[in-house]
Amino acid sequence: MKYKSVFDIIGPIMVGPSSSHTAGAARIGRVARKLFGRMPLRAEIVFYGSFAKTYQGHGSDVATVAGILDFDTSDLRLKNSLVIAEKAGMEVELSTSEVLTEHPNTARIKLSDDERQIEIVGVSIGGGKIEVLEVNGFSFQLGFDTPTLLVLHEDRFGMIAAVAKVLTQHNINVGLMEVSRHTRGSRALMAIETDSTISQEVLEEIRQIPHIFDVSLLALN
Amino acid sequence: MFRNVAELVELAESQGKKISEVMIEAEMEVSQRSRDAIMQDMYANLDVMEKAVRRGLTEDIRSHSGLTGGDAKKLQTYMETKTFLSGPTLLNAVSMSVAVNEVNAAMGTIVATPTAGACGIVPGTLFAVSDKLQPTREEMVNYLFTAGAIGYCIANNAFISGAAGGCQAEVGSATAMAAAAIVEMAGGTPEESAQAVAIALKNMLGLVCDPVAGLVEVPCVKRNAMGAAIATVAADMAMAGIKSVIPTDEVIEAMYRIGCAMPTTLKETAQGGLAATQTGRMIEAKVFGVRMEK
């Protein structure tokens, strides 16, 4: 069941004109921003499929940038995001690609500053709902409807159990879990959807586990 | 949780509940949130819809491209000044649906129901039917839960976006959702709601998504208008006891199969249908200044 909530159908409240191309695009941008954790200096956006063909009329470009600015789908500033981004000192580079993707509404977003970089691939599946298929080269299928914990760690035994142990101690139930790695023994990324939100203290506790490089938590709603 | 319309109707009828109540309880279970919190979120959606309807009927809405706007007001003026044929509830539903979709095209604030391209039909029919039936605010919110329950079934068994399944998935879903909700508000049974879904969706099968210049304007606004009309008539037909020969879930499955078989040129790519007509291409060139050849 891709759509879990009635508010996936009746909602979101948004600035028009397209839930896939405007609201969905904004949400993909916002996931990238939340994963990056702060205002980036550079945003490189590549549109594929229907996004590439029709983004101008749907404002997918302004919507994606609005998301990167951490604006909600209903934020009226969405329309002026390009100007706002420029004033904030964010460089935006937009391009389209003819490469055939699995889903027609696909965007690749790379955010960077002098210290860090993040790259995601998101698809807009309709009605403002999105899925993230790639985070820094790791393959996933994440919706970010519920709090989702992303843990970047060394690919070695016991890591999943160590994280799960912390969650268990704090009575946090896991709804869904995906693990992805580049190659055996290299880096791996754990994505954990939880039923309840996770406090900063718990995040810090997970961060202290040996062989963990980075921990982030995000949810769209 | 229910997986399709048959299960939804079975749940409602076996427990003597309305579809909206089944949806509210399912939402409480899935989200682990209180009834009050869920109701509040839907009241917020209702408020946004009401504002959009009022804006579209009273303000001079014009989209950025200049292609759409003002038709909702035209219809209201026509209703006030001329002898009209179809009926006030029907024409109000059409006019209010156009109003919301015009606000959407002008990058105004709307609620995706289930999408932005089809955002006029559910609120348009809701406020038009409310003029006639005088429901409480809670009954109006229940209308949205019933519409949502049907949209939930369609989205999980087929699709709701034009890019995935053509306009039948987008305006078609909204029409089916509205038809079911009208039936419930008018006092019909859950089974009659399901019949209205089948009757409404059947008449949207095969509908391609061919937005001129790729914009959510032409033909989207007028398809919202006709979606509202079809939803209202389908609800009346169902409450008259008329049944769909093909069961509701099979109609949804048919919609899914048709959408899968549809070429990508007819799925929101602006490469076929009305978008590819001579005028469609001219408009595209005028709006974007390029891309005459495709």
Automatic annotation (TrEMBL), chain A:
What does the similarity note say?
Belongs to the iron-sulfur dependent L-serine dehydratase family.
The organism's superkingdom is given as: Bacteria
Gene that encodes the chain:
sdaAB
Its GO biological process annotations read:
gluconeogenesis
A Pfam family that the UniProt record links to this protein: ACT
Tell me the cofactors it needs: [4Fe-4S] cluster
Q: Could you tell me what reaction this enzyme catalyses?
A: L-serine = pyruvate + NH4(+)
Give an example GO molecular function: metal ion binding
Pathways involved? Carbohydrate biosynthesis; gluconeogenesis
List UniProt keywords, sorted A-Z: 4Fe-4S, Gluconeogenesis, Iron, Iron-sulfur, Lyase, Metal-binding
InterPro entries per the record?
ACT-like_dom_sf (IPR045865), ACT_dom (IPR002912), ASB_dom_sf (IPR029009), Fe-S_L-Ser (IPR051318), Fe-S_L-Ser_bsu (IPR004643), Ser_deHydtase_bsu (IPR005131)
Q: Which part of the chain is the ACT domain?
A: 148-220
Provide the protein name: L-serine deaminase
Automatic annotation (TrEMBL), chain B:
Record keyword Metal-binding present: yes
Among the GO biological process terms of this entry, one is: gluconeogenesis
What UniProt keywords apply to this chain's record, in alphabetical order? 4Fe-4S, Gluconeogenesis, Iron, Iron-sulfur, Lyase, Metal-binding
Q: Does the keyword 4Fe-4S apply?
A: yes
Task: Name the needed cofactors.
Answer: [4Fe-4S] cluster
Which EC number(s) does the record attach to this protein?
Answer: 4.3.1.17
Any one GO molecular function term: 4 iron, 4 sulfur cluster binding
Q: Which residues cross the membrane?
A: none
- UniProt similarity note: Belongs to the iron-sulfur dependent L-serine dehydratase family.
Read off the NCBIfam families from this record: sda_alpha
The name on file for this protein is L-serine dehydratase
Source organism per UniProt: Brevibacillus brevis (strain 47 / JCM 6285 / NBRC 100599)
